[in-house]
Model the fold of this input.
Amino acid sequence: MRVEPQFLPSTEAVEPIRLLDEAGRLAPGAEAPLDPSRTLEALRFMMFGRAFDARCWSMQRQGRLGTFAPITGQEAAIMGSAMAADPARDWLVPQYRELPALLRHGYPVERVVLYRQGHPAGGFVPPGVRVMPYQVSLAAQLPHAVGIGWGMKLQAQSGVAMVYFGDGASSEGDFHESCNLAGIVDAPVIFLLQNNGWAISTPRSIQTAGSDIASRAPAYGFPGVSVDGNDLMAVYLVTAQAVERARQGGGPTLIEAHTYRMGAHTTADDPSRYVDPETEKGWARRDPILRVQRYLAQLGEWSEDRDAQWRKEIEADVDDAFERASRFPPPRASDLYEHVFDEVTPALARQRRWHLQEAAGGDEETG
Amino acid sequence: MAEMTMIEAIRSALRLEMERDERVIVMGEDVGQLGGVFRATDGLRQFFGPSRVVDTPLAESVIAGSALGLALTGLVPVIEIQFLGFAQNAYHQICQQLARSRYRTRGAQPAQITVRAPFGGNVRTPEFHSDSMESQFAQNTGLKIVMPASAPDAKGLLLQSIRDPDPVLFLEPLRGYRMISGEVPDGDYTVPFGALRTVREGSDVTLVAWSGSVPVAAEAAELLDAKGVSAHVVDLRTLVPLDEAGLVAALERTGRCVVVHEAPATAGFGAEVVALLQEQAFYSLEAPLRRVAAPDSHYPLPGVERDFVPGAGLVVRAALETLEA
Ligand SMILES: Cc1ncc(C[n+]2csc(CCOP(=O)(O)OP(=O)(O)O)c2C)c(N)n1
Done:
């Protein structure tokens, strides 16, 4: 007997959900899920993110910052989702391109400056701020987010965990293990996949032979959504609904935000070796920041004057971020010996004395 | 002979072996179109095509694990793990599956696979990119551990690794990729495993190092020279197999020894070297054996990495202490 498999590969990608077109016009009949003041709030973070990138890029080129990953092009995916999270009860678990989301959630910007300067103090998370630090080891943050969501659920808290990751990271085993457990324990987790088309030089087509990464969700027993990641309104709408569902005990959602990395992977990358400039130009027309500004202009909430004014204010905010970071004392060799264990081990104390040429019996602070 | 950087020497070995042996395939993250994030595989795609120079999905465990399957079908995989820190995502596959395959099949299914990975500090990388993890791998028997410190060795040892019938972890010192260069012989040659290299002859104290720590030991030897101390410097080249007789002979030259490595001290490979010398050369010792290693901390953010990675100054201090002992 010849049998037909019941589960066939989905070959056609679904149309991502979209509310704003490239000209910033709301889809016919659609209602804006963010009012003008919240839209402006999101836009401010988006513009800050891009300005901060530009400043960091030039400082990196001057040798004053280490390698970092810009967010340019991905601002709507980042802020549309972050706007749906409540800093007082929800957790944000980033990969490494989510700067403005972290800031809205209460993470101090000077810590990001310090981190990029390579200062050990850059890792500190102030008490009460519900974020984890940047994650460089791809997909390693996904299991943590499942634990956070699950833990809140076990303790009958209403928070959700929003975890960000890339299309490349979705190929790691940790992605599968995390979705699987989140589905089983019905953890309130929003898996926010920023599909920016690339993992360094590797295109999405080499990460999976499937059509949409979001289409994997039903196999784990929860819903998946595909959304235009350069559309602030659409990303907000689908994330807010997923957050609401998770709060009501409806479990996880996998959101695939289709966006584009407009530029290099990091300051160490040379995308001219693999990116077709035409593709890049096409995405530039879909710039997520311009789209929001055009939308707001139609409401009379955005003008050239306001744009100029904001840019000036944002430059001052960026100056301020660096200024605040500069008030930290420079890193010290002794930083290496602190926070390794709760209490310093005899070996570490001995090593510290020898490396730093400290007198025996000296101050072995555990800090 | 041609003057080459280490990365060029590695690239020339890959190209030579892929030309010589059509079973060899190269695979990993960004190795094809981009030519690797450090360009170790640059140009190979043009010569050998996308089915022999394979861009993989971002998934270290399946890169390593599928290499075992590929090897069972008669291919000779050379896989790249983009940074050694991420090899831990493939740790089980490399250390338990690849390394154990020969043993558990009583020789029927050996794993002729080379795992290349860069590692090592002082190049201002993000977190997890710089850790020295050789001793973690060295405890898994069945896996050979090759750590060149010179350009000609990088080529000759890589050719030997690819041809070796056992799985080999071939570790490349990141900061040496372009900083280390030297005369590299043309054409085909191999450097045997388990034969250390004498970097410099000396009579007062023996400095033992491998990979990125060899230039540190060599610099320390220069500084010691200026203080009237003659240092004998050896480069282990391979940790597994280890040149035990060569190490004992190097110790016997001076009776004093400082081992230098970039990994943290506790359970670092320096402990193995020191234990071996204590067991096999006890009566030649003139002073306690010393290790200069990173402290038992985590590889830090770049702002303090120079205080973490042992530099020549610490090696000099330890060497002088052994001379005072
Ligand atoms: C486990 C692991 N493997 C490899 C790397 C090296 N690496 C850093 S970023 C990157 C690509 C990531 O792509 P993606 O997840 O799509 O995120 P994006 O950078 O595009 O935002 C790679 C391969 C890493 N950081 N972690």
Notes: The two ends of chain A are 71 Å apart (CA to CA). The pocket of thiamine diphosphate is lined by residues A 97, 136-138, 166-169, 196, 198-200, 261, 265; B 29, 58, 82, 86, 89 (CB under 6 Å). Residues 36-331 of chain A form a domain with the Rossmann fold fold (CATH 3.40.50.970). The CA atoms of residues 293 and 302 of chain A lie 6 Å apart.
